[in-house]
Amino acid sequence: VSSIKLVTEIPGPRSLELLARREAATPNGAAKLTPLAIVGGSGAVVTDADGNQLLDFAGGIGMLAVGHTPPSIVAAMQQQAAELVSAGNIVVSTEPAVEVAEALNRLTPGDHPKKTLLMNSGAEAVEAAVSIARAHTGRGGLIVFEGAYHGRTNLTLSMTSKYALFKKGFGPFAPEVYRLPFPNRYRRPDDMGEQAWVEWHCRNLRHALIAQIDPSALAAIVIEPVLGEGGFLPTPPPLLQTIREICDEHGVVMIADEIQSGFGRTGTLFAIEHAGVVPDLITSGKSLGAGMPIAAVTGRAEIMDAPHPGGLGGTYSGAPLAAVAAREAIRIISEPAFLERARAIGERLRSGLEKIQADHPGLVGDVRGLGPMLCLELVKDPVSKEPDMDATAAVCAAAVRRGLIAIRAGLYSNCVRLLPPLILTDDQIDEGLGVLAAAFDEVAAGRS
Ligand SMILES: Cc1ncc(COP(=O)(O)O)c(C=O)c1O
Which of 139, 141, 166 is nearest to 154 (CA)? Predict the structure, then answer.
């Protein structure tokens, strides 16, 4: 049975109509990756305004590990909405927010006492994590990595790497942010073996404590265990271990930003579990809320308690409606069977992507990721590895025209990334891969 059912061209007339209204009513700068107008969703399938059914391999940029409108979450939200939408967690206490904090304290890596702060967005959570680290250490400096994406507030933009798309015209940026190269396995020097190249990055981090910032001024090292926006590059475990060692040696706070890689995305609850490293603070968002705006910072109780009473929070933080969605999403995603299925999805997707690469060796330079968090990197030529941003945009557009929502990523915008709901059936995986293969065939044919 196919999930994709098209009754008009994509985008259809109603999608185009809404897109035109959106363009007239909202600023040009507001990002939009596809021309689709969506009116409904269930599982991994969405319905557009023209009545077409599409497979969603973007999941709202990875916020729908549990899929669209899971019945238990919808029911919990309906009940909560009827009882109490919000009274503001700065003013009162509500149980759903406490339940989410308790669950995150229990489920995040490490057995130490933990506390959780709830926020509304990933950027807010990262920004709060930095404030907490600064309050704890009494220091200001941050080390971040090239290719990182941490959000769009001034501080998180300062920490974000990709300049042209996210930062152009928006400076001045926050001071005391030091950026190191990220180990990109695919683009490492030709004469450097994989181990030597990882060791170089570990040494370079230690070197930065001489060359760029003294540890006595360093509050935190912030890293995504798998680069999200930066192109699904897993951080090599030795680098995570080196960060851990440096943080222990110098009283620096290790912050793992798992807004994109967390909540089952890599087949474990958190991506850093693959490396066995325990960060001091971990941020979660996106799939945590099953589509509702909620994000969190969880970490060592003594660090989390550093800011003065009243120093943290916001009007909507931990609002009951979002918190019940998160409570139910956590319940679903933390089930071993859910994570096992996520890993199986990853294996099936990976073999399909590798077949696409084998069919298009001149176009697909790399297939990579961790578990089901997978992407393809597109190049103009596999020897020079020159990024092919245009072909990437063309593949995504061709996939959308055929009924598969796929989006790009990467420092050079030359990766097709897959962030599907982690409840795909095998039929849906194969159907999505078939569409993606056809999109690559089309773009490769146009090239030659
Ligand atoms: C790793 C990471 N951190 C932070 C953010 C920012 O999250 P939000 O868009 O919810 O502010 C994102 C969003 O893509 C992300 O991938």
Answer: 166
